[in-house]
Amino acid sequence: MKRLSPVLLLLGACVKIPSALMLEPTQTATSAPIVPTDEATTLAAMLNGDPLARRVRLPTVASFESVAWGAPYAAAATAIAEAERSASPDLLLRLEADWNGTAAVALARGVAAGRIEEAFSRDRAAREVALMLGPLAPAVTGASTDDATTLDWLGPVAQRRDRALMLSADRVLAGWLSGPSVPAGPVIAALDGQLYDGLRERPLARALVARSAPPQPSPAALEALERATNLALQRSAADRDREQAAWAKARDAASAEVGGVDPVKAWLDRAFDAALTQGGDPTATGAALVADAARRWDASCHDIACLGLDRVGTLARGDAWGAEPGHFGDVWVVIALNDALKTMDVAQQSVLYPIALPNLIDAVVGSGGAPLPVDLLERRKPDEATWLAIGRSLGEPGATDWPGARHAIGQHLARIARAAAAEAPEGDRRTQLTSIADRAAP
After folding, report:
1. What's the rounded mean pLDDT across residues 104-115?
2. d(CA 336, CA 341)
3. Of 22, 70, 178, 242, which sits with the fewest C-beta atoms within 10 Å of its C-beta?
4. Per-residue pLDDT, 31
5. Rounded CA gap, 232 and 226, in Å?
6. Position 242 pLDDT exceeds 70
7. Which letter, b or e, does each residue of 133-144 get, where b requires 16 or more Cβ atoms within 10 Å of its Cβ?
8. Alpha carbons 271 and 278: distance in angstroms, whole number
9. What is the pLDDT of residues 22-53, one digit of tens each?
């Protein structure tokens, strides 16, 4: 339960929102048609100066047929146009899933970011906002919940709009980092505008800009990420008294090494900062992406962006940048799901349930489960529909109580933990991953 306290602190924190996140008509609109040439030039024209792609200009689908790189853009143009007509977030979610690792991810999230701003101008738009903030499915038909409570996990009502805008902006930035084939140049150029001074300071914007520098391979980022990951894994795997005592000893020694602060946070910060000095090295970019998502999950980032429904899914994208960031990202996925499972063991029978549930949703869906219904976020306490939805998300449709849902989560956790263990070197990391797997599905 100690892992919940940083989140509780964040829920009371104030957010200073960069002016660039306010959806204003800052660019001069143009009706000139876009004719695809090279990918970078075409993407720059589509963005029209907005790195968050909130008002993206779409060439015709047919115009992409003659270019080798056009398939994800044609899919984006089709899905976004259909989503505009139907107001359905499902189309944007499917676009992300089908074209992961391409610019289509950021384009879909950019449209969602624009919709979030618009949604806050209408009454009772909480469900629409939540659907745009993470991989969620529409509400279960006939569910008797109050959609005014869908965004309670974002904290006080007066701060939800700003927090949602910040989270949606970070999601777009993560989309531009969903794979090394996504052109960074047009987005970096758009970020250079004076309007986006505040946005450029966001961690993932800094990681994106770093891609423009020449690659400078260095072991520092991966070494720091390994230190943080090993410590967090030991903490997560420590269930028995002997293991918890060993973890406390390791934590204290590591804390002394980094100046008496939280050692996991310190090593994640070092990993991120070191990765930025390596320029456009793909492994370094992956290390930065994983380190930042891990900070968000560990509630050791620097602002309200520690919240979110996309942290674990971002961790899982490390593999797009190389085997090493992929492995460390996979280990963090195991940590996240294991932590969320153990927290829910207690929270499902307490008033902490509404706080624990978003973390469990993030961990289940981000680790490979199917999107969960948005109205689960509206339940102040769990019911049969809650556990049934979670079981179905993981391919076990018969769960109607916590033991049944826990079994489904445990089986899923065991599978991904064993897969991560198979990629780990001989030693403590493999042992701890195997231990998590064995305990999750004895």
Report:
1. 94
2. 9
3. 242
4. 53
5. 10
6. yes
7. bbbbbebbeebe
8. 11
9. 544 444 444 567 889 999 999 999 999 999 99
Model-level pTM greater than 0.90?
yes
Its sign, for the CA torsion 142, 143, 144, 147, is negative
| Residues 313/366, Cβ–Cβ less than 8 Å | yes
Closest C-alpha among 143, 52, 136, 56 to residue 96: 136
**Does residue 7 surpass a pLDDT of 80?**
no
Q: What percent of the chain has pLDDT over 70?
A: 90
Burial label, 68 (beta-carbon count in 10 A; 0-12, 13-18, 19+): exposed
The answer to whether the CB of 385 falls within 8 A of the CB of 369 is: no
User: What long-range pairs does 347-354 form, CB within 8 A, spacing at least 24?
Assistant: 347/1, 347/4, 348/382, 348/402, 352/1, 352/4, 353/380, 353/381, 353/382, 354/152, 354/153, 354/379, 354/380
Q: Does residue 14 carry a pLDDT above 60?
A: no
Tokens, residue 101: 């690792």
Distance (Å, whole) CA 68 – CA 385:
46
DSSP state string for 13-46: ------GGGS----S----PPP---SHHHHHHHH
Structure tokens, 387: 């556990």
Q: Which pLDDT score is estimated for 142?
A: 56
Residue whose pair of structure tokens reads 């899919």 in the numeric block: 75
Residue 20's pLDDT is 54
**What pLDDT sits at residue 4?**
43
pLDDT surpassing 70 at residue 58: yes
Beta-strand pair 372-373/136-137: parallel
Q: How many CB atoms lie within 10 A of CB 59?
A: 18
pLDDT of residue 27: 44
Q: Retrieve residue 400's tokens.
A: 């109607």
What's phi and psi for 304, nearest 5 deg?
-65, -15
**Quick one: tokens of 2?**
């100690």
CA 33, CA 70: separation in Å to the nearest integer? 16
The region of weakest confidence among 11-20, 129-138, 246-255 is 11-20
Rounded to whole angstroms, how far apart are CA atoms 38 and 99?
A: 19
